[in-house]
Design goal:
The chain is α+β, with helices and mostly antiparallel strands and 309 residues long. It is built from four helices and eight strands; from the N terminus they run H-H-H-E-E-E-E-E-H-E-E-E. It has a domain of 96 residues: Immunoglobulin-like (Sandwich). Strands 1-4-7-6 form a four-stranded antiparallel β-sheet, with no helix packed on it. Strand 6 and strand 7 form a beta hairpin. It is elongated, with a radius of gyration of 53 Å. It starts with 7 loop residues before the first helix and ends with a strand.
């Protein structure tokens, strides 16, 4: 029994002319479709490029948008002659008069509407304004105000401020730097820190502030009492000595606010008993203690104190 198909499958198609013709036709159609697709793609690409170029070309040919301008009128010779007439009217509302050359007004110039100045305003002589509203920055080499000057916002002066007459401040004055006064008159002056390099002449010194904390000591004796009045700067201390007082502490004072360095305490006796009692003080940043190394004299020991740093 021999092979019925010695050429296999390929032999079968090769021996069949109909199948071979179909395959060749399909090959030719596929190649043509590829060529047509490439041509169509190239055509669409060229159309897209042409449309883009055409759009930008059309945009470049459009007239540029211009801002609305006020109509300008050219003056005739008759209009120019009217400039020498008193009360003459030139043009109408909404029109613009452009003067290319310099303009000199030897008399008064009355402007009933707004005045817009695009450049600088140079005034060689005095300028009188009944009211001046400035919304932006203004540089003035010399500014004389004959009447009131009202500034609603913050005013910054980068150089010296000289006031020839009286300066009245209804509010406070904050000075971040040094301030120099030849003479300063104030009904009330409150300062936190003041440095004086020269002589200080004061008719009266009045101190103020809350009363420091006070604690009685063991040297008052049996039934003894103590009290004080004043502030961190000055005051009075009263010690009422009781029975059989020992040596030791008469009282301890604690400041309301501590000093920056160890203060100086001046204790002045106000009574004979205080004068005969050898009292002294020990001090710290936060207060001082009144002590005696011997039993205090019976009676009332009253002392004034002054504290300085």
């Amino acid at each position: 029994m021999g092979d019925s198909n010695p050429s296999g499958t390929g032999g079968q198609s090769g021996s069949n002319p109909a199948l071979a013709g179909i395959a060749n036709t399909w090959d030719r159609l596929r190649k043509r479709a590829t060529v047509f697709g490439s041509i169509a793609g190239l055509f669409l690409f060229l159309v897209g490029i042409g449309g883009t170029v055409g759009y930008f070309y059309a945009q470049s040919k459009k007239p540029a948008t211009t801002a609305k301008q006020t109509p300008v009128q050219t003056l005739s010779q008759d209009d120019i002659n009217k400039l020498s007439e008193v009360g003459a009217n030139l043009g109408a509302t909404g029109q613009t008069l452009n003067i290319g050359a310099n303009a000199l007004f030897r008399g008064k110039a009355d402007i009933t509407g707004d005045l817009n100045i695009g450049g600088k305003l140079n005034a060689n002589g005095p300028v009188t304004l009944s009211q001046l509203n400035i919304s932006g920055n203004t540089a003035a080499s010399g500014l004389n105000v004959g009447s009131n000057l009202l500034v609603s916002g913050t005013t910054t002066l980068q150089n010296t401020l000289t006031v020839a007459s009286l300066a009245t401040f209804n509010g406070g004055i904050n000075a971040n730097g040094n301030s120099s006064f030849n003479a300063l008159n104030a009904n009330t002056l409150s300062v936190r820190t003041i440095n004086i390099s020269g002589a200080l002449a004061i008719s009266h010194i009045v101190t103020q502030g809350s009363t420091p904390a006070f604690v009685s000591g063991n040297a008052l004796g049996g039934g003894g009492t103590a009290s004080m009045s004043g502030n961190d700067t000055s005051g009075t201390i009263d010690f009422n000595i009781g029975s059989s007082p020992p040596a030791g502490i008469l009282g301890t004072i604690t400041f309301k606010a501590a000093y920056g360095a160890t203060p100086h305490i001046i204790l002045s006796p106000l009574t004979g008993a205080a004068a005969t009692t050898p009292a002294y003080v020990t001090r710290t940043l936060t207060g001082f203690v009144v002590r005696t190394d011997s039993p205090p004299t019976a009676g009332t020991l009253a002392y004034d104190y002054i504290v300085t740093q």
